[in-house]
Amino acid sequence: MDPNAEKIVEPLRQSVKEQGDLVRKLKDENAPEIDVHKAVNELKARKKRLEDKILDLAPKSETIDRVKLEDLLKRRFFYDQSFAIYGGVTGLYDFGPMGCAIKSNFLHEWRKHFVLEEQMLEVDCVMLTPEPVLKASGHVDRFADYMVKDTVNGECFRADHLIKAHLEKISSDKKASQQLKDECETITTQLDGMTLAEMTAILRKFNMKSPVTNNELTDPIPFNLMFQTSIGPAGNIKGFLRPETAQGIFVNFKRLLEFNQGRLPFAAAQIGNSFRNEISPRSGLIRVREFTMAEIEHFVDANDKSHPKFTDVADVEVALYSACNQMDGKSPEKRRIGDAIKDRTIANETLAYFMARIYLFLTKMGADPNKFRFRQHLGNEMAHYACDCWDAEMKTSYGWVECVGCADRSAYDLTQHTKATGVRLVAEKRLKEPKNVLGAPLSVSVAFCAALAGFALRR
Fold first, then answer.
1. pLDDT tens for residues 27-37?
2. 381 contact partners, CB below 8 Å, separation of at least 6
3. pTM for this structure?
4. Alpha helix (H) residue ranges in 226-318
5. DSSP annotation string for 207-248
6. In what order do the strands lie in the sheet with 228-231?
7. Do the Cβ atoms of 67 and 259 come closer than 8 Å?
8. Is 95 left (phi over 0), alpha (psi -120 to 50) or beta?
C-alpha cells in the first residue's frame, strides 16, 4: 500500500488495535461473557471498516463481468441449474460434459498430490447417516442457522441475510442520516456473532417485512441444515444425508488403525458428496445444497504433533492473517511456514505441514498467490470441535471466499463416538519403562486418543 493510502487507514488500524486490546483484557480478567461478546462484536465492526477501506484504496485489478461469464458457462453447459425444464431448484446444479471433465481432472490431481504422495488410506463411506452418529458429533444440536418465515405464504428466509439486505437498502437511501448509516453498518458487521434474541430485536426495531410480499415475518427460529430422512420401510430409524465426509472416517478409525498395523501417524482421505439444506443458497456454486468434498483426517499422537516431512515445506512462504494481526488491525504477513512454527503462530508442525501442502496444491491448480491468504479463526469463530483453525481464502469477484478449512480437531470426534458407543477409538504405544501417574502404576503400553489435523476442500 502506498504511503498516502497508509495515512488514510492508520486511524482505522489504531481503532481496531484499541478494541483488540480491550478484548484481550476482558478475557484475562475473566469478565462476564456478555461483556466479552459485545467487545468482540465491536472488534468485528471495526475490522470490517478497516478491510473495506483497504479494498477501496487498493489498485483496481482486472475485473470480469460475472453475469456474462455465468451465462456463457451455462450456455455451453459447463453447468446449469438442476431440473431446469421444471423451473429448477435453487442450490442444486448439474455439470455438463466440460464441467465433468474439469471436475474429474481437478480431483485426479488432488488424489495424486495428497493421497498418493502422502500414502494415505482412502475410504468411500455411505452418505446416509443414522441419527446417533451425528448426535454424537454435535451436528444434530449445533449445525443450524436462524430462519424467519412469511406469516402468510410460509416462504423462508435466512435471518442474517435478510437483515443485511434490509439494512443495506436503508443505508443506500439518500435521505438516511449518517448516524443511521453508521448504525446499519455496525449491525451488519456483527451479524455472525448475534444471538437469537439480538436478531429478533433488530427485526422488530426496523419493522422488517418479507422482501418478496411485504408480509409480516415470524421471529427467528433455529433451523438445522441437515436433510432428514428415515431408513427402512417402517421409518423407525431416523437418519440424515451427511453434512460432511469426515464422520465416515472417524467411525472407521479402529479398522483403519488395524489396517495400518496399529501405527501412528497415518492419514485417511475421502472424496464424496455432502448435503446442507441451505435456507437461501446464493453466490452461484459457492453456497449450494449438494456439493463434492475432498477431505483428509491425519491422526497423530496427541502428545507429539510433529511431522516427519515438515522440513520439506519449512521454507514455503504464505500470507498468514493471524488472529493477533486481525485484533491489532494489521494486514496479512508473508511468512515462512518454519518461522510461523518457531513463534507459535501456527499451533503445531502437522497443521503447518498441511497448510503448506494446501498452498502448493492450490497454486499448482491456478490460484493467484497474490490473492491468497490463510486466515486464522478468532476464538469466538472456532468450531466446537477445533482448538486451532485456519481457512485458505482466495480473493474473488465475491470478495474473500473460504475454499479450504484446515483445523486441529484434537480428539473431539473420536472421544464423542467412544462415549456414544462404548468402543474405544484409541491407539496404543509401548513405553520404554513403566510410569506412575497420580500414584497409579501404568503398564509398559499406554492408550491415548489420537489427535488430528483435518481439512476439507469444498467444490
1. 888 888 778 87
2. 192, 389
3. 0.83
4. 246-251, 253-259
5. T---TTT---BPPPEEEE-SPEEEESTT--EEEEE-S-SHHH
6. 128-130, 237-241, 228-231
7. no
8. beta
